[in-house]
Amino acid sequence: MIQVKYFGMIAEATSKEGEEINAGEKPFSEILSEISSKYNLGDLSYQVAVNKKLVSDFSKLQLEEGDEVAFLPPFSGG
Amino acid sequence: MDRYLRQITLPQVGNIGQEKLLKSKVLVIGAGGLGCAVLPYLVAAGIGEIGIVDGDRIEESNLHRQVLYASDKVGNSKAKESASILLQNNPHIQIRVFEEYLTQKNAVEIISGYDLIIDATDNFFVRYTINDTCVALDKPFIYGSIYQFQGQVSVFNYKGGPTYRDIFPEKDQKVPNCEEAGVMGTTVGLIGMIQANEAIKIILEIGEVLSGKLLLYDSLRNEQQVFEFSKVEAPQKTEIEPDFEFFSAEEVPEKQMMLLDVREIGEEPEIKLDNFIQIPLSRLEKDLKKLDPKQSILVFCQSGMRARKAAKLLFEKGFQNLSLMSGGAKDLEYLQNHEEDLS
What we know:
By secondary structure, chain A is α+β, with helices and mostly antiparallel strands. Chain A is built from two helices and five strands.
């Protein structure tokens, strides 16, 4: 299982602050696109962090049990 | 002078630290919710020179979070009003007022006079202008922003460190500001306070600066998390779109321009001025015939995002004389209500 956390507008789109997902052996990019299509996040802008580090290259990444994934959108209020 | 005695007592500050504060020049862009939290503490701490950039006026709906402003100052300039209040607290420092919005046109001139920049804006496009200008001029800038009860803070371009574009490279994003998403005064105050604290740390050269780190604060849970990021190796994008000229609402009566409102029909406030046409962005491409490509057109919407998209679209369709309004519909409404005074 992996822990997924949603922030800002992404939490609004998913209607939750986080969830546990059974990632199995799936590549990270596949998990991301599953989440994106499940909650219709296609129009929103966000960055993804794994274990508190922003990920720039998804292709090399394979998640491990207990990893924490965060969806971070830009904020604009002030 | 006893004024700074208690902070000079801190071993990390001392007389040398106080001297650093007094010699520093800090620019605060935006005197709204974040600015109202950042500014009083920088002023009180004895930052020698402070610049305040804001073309906006105080509105009643600002007062719950922009705590520098008194009720009877509604309608006044935020930059001027905040400066006059702040100088009452500390008359020993210099405050320079820029009663205008930061734009691609004036950014280099304004930013170049300061050592450290604080982004206290609520506008996405201005953030990219601040980022790119700070990179070009080699200045660090402290970013802060809010979404409802959450806030983000980071220090960009610090000693060659990563920039805002290393997290969010593209600016074509749908991100609501406080007007659209709502905000609590305390949340914006907390985030502004973290920005002010980072500014003081950078000037004093103490502690760990939030460079390469994005702090995310959740005021409902009292949780804060720090996410690390680094420079993206791919070549960085900067402004590649046409460099539109900006005009403020006050400049409109002097300019012989068609005012193009690209908001959807029914959006408030309703604007009724001479030389005015409303074509929602969603219909602009179909309704191009309503516009004359040779006419000078000033595009506006609510926050500036749709206006910029519309101007880009018109530019691609061969329109040459395009400019954007730095404020938005609410500034025009102000003008509309005060038309007699201006004419």
